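Q: My labmate handed me this sequence with no annotations at all. I'd like to see what the chain might look like in three dimensions before we decide whether it's worth expressing. Could you predict it?
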Amino acid sequence: MLAKQWLTHAREVMTRIEETQMDNIRQAAEIMANSIEAGRWVHTFGCGHATLPIEEMYPRIGGFVGFHPMIELPLSFFTRITGEMGVHQFVFLERVEGYGIEIMKGYQFDPRDTMWIFSHSGINNVNIDVALEAKKKGMKVVAFGSAAEAQGKQTRHSSGKTIFDVADIVVDTCAPLGDAAVPLKNHQDKVGPVSTMAFVTSVWMTVTTVAEILAERGVKLYIHPSHNVPGDETARQRLEEALAVYKQRIAGV
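A: Here is what I predict for the chain of 253 residues:
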């Protein structure tokens, strides 16, 4: 069954992350914890399906204040397919050098911030622009993607660098470069991509490690609670408190 083939591939990717990336995840989490403890941000950025791990981590139940999603609508997960903001435009825009520089102009940054970038292949210009600009501003850059699989792949950026070359810390998501994992009878292309699952797995391994580090340091986390659990009378209050802290931070208070 192809369903079981996909599940086998997904489990293998998760196992490789566990076996090979724990040290890198810990290093990334230490950098992020330092930013959050300082009252600053871990900015998160990606394009296309690489925005999904960004949306997964914050805001949501079990996430906490300190992660700032930077998602550009023309580069985000698209559902129109054709027409306005379709696939053709997206593929073009993520390869436009200089676009990431313009995106960065819309935000306030601090050298204590961390820039966390998701890119499966690591070769497209917008992500590299954002990483290079973050480094110029004194931030640490953390990149998650299929780093080992992408080795030797030619960047599209004039710097000659991939996102993995620019980053201070790289966590390899261990997904195949072609992403789709399951061969299909009478077809050239495979089905069943695993990169999103790999991203989400590595995200929560990292975010929970950040939480562990901060809790050990005695830092209070403003966690989004579930407001669907019967009997939890203070869930709404805790959510409002977390959102108030987020609002203060984003305003620079």
